[in-house]
Amino acid sequence: MSHQESLAERAIDKVKPQPGAPSKPKAPAVPDKEWQSSVERKEIVPGLTVHDVGLSVFGETRSLRDRQGSNESIDSARQRVAHAMINDPELSHRTGKPRNKVHDPVEPSDKVLRSREERAAYDSSLHAAREAYLSGQDPTNGATHFNMRPAPRRTPFDGAFPISTQSGPYDNSFPSKNAPRHTTWLNTYLPDENEKKQHKKR
User: What is the pLDDT of residue 202?
Assistant: First the structure.
């Protein structure tokens, strides 16, 4: 090969497209159930897991169903309840205040979960807890209380806790002392002034 041919080849090499670097192999996908279980095992405070919160959300809201005219879906409302259930023990852990009473985190039986409506409420509640735990934004602005009301009143809860969000109305298939009608709203409430002062001192 002549010197001229060698120079010509080097010139061509500079202008012709060169092969790129080999692409990095993709990480193996994590199955959804495995990922969900991993999130649900996380502790919000010692002794309280994300899964526990989901079970409590289920216990509190399992009788509620979407209703035409609601301002948002029951799935979204459950996320607000989950935020309140996470905010309250976090505040309690920081300040020593007693935790608010919520439904015990009881795992439903296989018989219960064979009901399509119950299964949907269960899956929605666990999803709400995962989303609330992972979310970088709290739509309740730090709510620590919630309740169900038979009318869209916005008065402070127990005269002390200002309302934060109101979702509904929803169909309630199991009226009770706390939700006595078949039409129900879900409210969340902010801490009262004493809790806020405790929080600022810490």
Answer: 47
Tell me whether residue 16 is in a domain: no
Phi-psi region of 69 (alpha: psi -120 to 50; beta: other; left: phi over 0): left
- Does residue 6 lie in a domain region? no
User: Before 169, cis peptide (omega within 30)?
Assistant: yes
pTM of the model: 0.81
Express each pLDDT in 43-81 by its tens digit. Answer: 999 999 999 999 999 999 999 999 999 999 999 999 999
Q: How many domains does the chain have?
A: 1
Tally of CB atoms within 10 A around 101: 7
Quote the domain boundaries for residue 75: 32-201
3-state secondary structure the chain: CCHHHHHHHHHHHHHCCCCCCCCCCCCCCCCHHHHHHHHHCCEEECCEEHHHHHHHHHHHHCCEECCCCCCCCHHHHHHHHHHHHHHHHHHHHHHCCCCCCCCCCCCCCHHHHCCHHHHHHHHHHHHHHHHHHHCCCCCCCCCCEEEEECCCCCCCECCCECEEEEEEEEEECCCCCCCCCCEEEEEEECCCHHHHHHHHHC
